[in-house]
Amino acid sequence: MLTDAQTNETYERAFAALHSMANDNKLTEEQRSLARDERDRLNLEYIGKAVSGSDERTVLFQTFIDKMNNVITQFAGNDTVDGLRKLKSVVDLASEVLGAATKTFAAPAARVIKPVAKAARRGAVAKKTGKSSKKAGKTAKTSGKAAKQGSGTMARPSRSRGRAAPTIAAKAPSRKAKRRAR
Amino acid sequence: MATRVIGLRWSIASVLLAAIATAGCTTVPSREFTTYKDSFAKARAAGETVVLDYGVAVAQFEEIKAKQAAAKPAKKMREPFDPNAAGRNQAAVDHILIRMKAWEVVARYNDLLTALAEGKSAEELAGAVDGLSASLNSFPIKDVAAAATQVSGYLAPLRALALEAAKEHSRRQFIDAVGLGAPLINDSFLKLLRDETGDFYLVRERLNDREISALADTANSTGTRLSELVSAYQASRDADAAIAAFNADVERLPVLRGGVRLVFPLKSPSQRGTNPLTPDVAAQIATLAQDAKAQVAKVMAKDDELTAYRQVLIAYLGLLNQLEHSLRGLLAAAEQAQPGIPQGADLERAVILLRQAYMAYKDKGKD
Questions:
Q1: Looking at beta carbons, which residues of chain A come within 8 Å of B181?
Q2: What's this model's pTM, rounded to 2 decimal places?
Q3: What distance in Å separates residue B257's CA from the closest CA in chain A?
C-alpha cells in the first residue's frame, strides 16, 4: 500500500513524463494528442482522489459538531441552571398573576361599582319614603345586570332595559316628595 | 422601631455578601478569554474563506468532469444494483455546509462561555425578583401591600444572596465548560482543520497542473513554430535575439518532477535555410516571439497563483496556531481559577448564615 507521499510522487512523475511526451516534436501529432489525453485523465483522477479524501473528513467534522452540541446542551440544560430557570419562571408567574389581579381590581372599581351604589342609595331613599320603592328596586336590578355584563355593556346599554336606567336613576327624589315623606 | 428594622435588613444583606466573599470566589480569566475570542474571530473569517475557496475548486472539478462526460459519452452498460451505493447517492452531503456548521458550533460554544462569564442567568433572576417586589407593592388590597413592605425586607437580602450565588455558579460553570470544550476544539477541530489544508492544497495544485500544462502546451507550440521559421532562413541578429529572449523567459518557469520542463527551451538551429530574412518574415518572427512571451507569462502567472494560495494557507495555519495557543492559555488560566473550598460547602454556609440572620431578625421583631 502506497503512502500519500508515495502516491503523490508517482502521480507527479507520471504527469511529468506524459507532459514531456505531449510536447515532444519527435512524436507524431496523434501520439502527442494521446499523451495529452492521458495526462488530463490522470490529473482528473487524482483531483477526484484528493476531493474524496476531504469528503471522508466530513464525517469527522460531523462527529465534532455532535460532541460540541453535547457540551453546549450540558451547560445550557444544567440541573442548577434549570433550577434557576424554574425559580425565575415561578417568580415571573407570580408577577404575572399579581399584575393581572391588579388590573381586574382596578378597572371595574371605576366604572361598574358606582352606578350600583347609586341605585342602592336610591333604593334606600325609596324604602324610607315608602313610595316608588318598586321603581327604585327595578333600577337597582337593571344596573346590577348591566354591571355583570361588564364594562363594555355599561358603556353601551341594551335598548330594552339599559337605556331607561340612566334616566330613572338621574331623577333624584324631588323636594315635594321629601316633604311628603316627613 | 422602623429605623431599627431597616438597619437590621441592611446588616443582613452585608453579612450575607461578606459571607459569600469570604467563602471563596471564582474569577473568570477575562483577559485570556478576550484573547481567545479575538483569535477565534480571525481564524473563523480566514477558515470560512478557505473552505469557500475549496468549494469553488470542487465545483471546477465537477464542471470539468461533466464537460468530459458530455464530450465523450460512455457506452450505455447495464450496471448491477447496489442498494448501499444507491442510498449513499441519494443522501448527498453538503461538505462545505458541514464545515461552516463546525465553525458555527464553536461560535455558539463561545456565546455560551460569554453568557456564563457575564452571569446572564443571575441578572435575569434578579430582574424577576425585582418585578415580583414591585407587583406586591402595587397590589390593590391594603393588607397585601402592607405585607409586601415586610416581604421586601426579606427579598432584599435574599435577592443579594441569590444573585451572588447564581453569579458564582455561572463563573464555575464557565470554568467547567472551558475544561470540557477546549480540549475538544484543540484535539479534534483544530487538528481536522490543519490536516484538511493538505487536501485543499492538493486539489488546487492538481487543478493548477491541468491549467498550467494546457498553457504550457500553447507556449511550446508557439516556440516550435518560431524555431521552425527561424531555421528556414539565413541567420539574423533579430531572429537569434527572439529565441534568446524566449529561452530566458522559460528559464524562470518552475520544472516538473524529474526536472521535466513545463515549456521547453528552443535550441539554436543547427541547419539554416539559404534565403535571406525578408521584412515580412522578420515581422512574423517578431509577432511569434511576442505571442510566446505572453504565453510564457501566463504560465508564470498560473504558477504564481498557486504560490499565493500556498501563502494564504500558511497564514491560515498561523491563525489556527494562534487560536490553539490562546485556547491553551485560557484553559491553563481556568484551571488556576478554581477556588480552594468546594462549591457546595460555600453555598451551604451562605444559606446557613441567611437562616441565622432571618431567625435573629424574627427574634428582634418579637422584642
A1: 68, 71
A2: 0.68
A3: 6
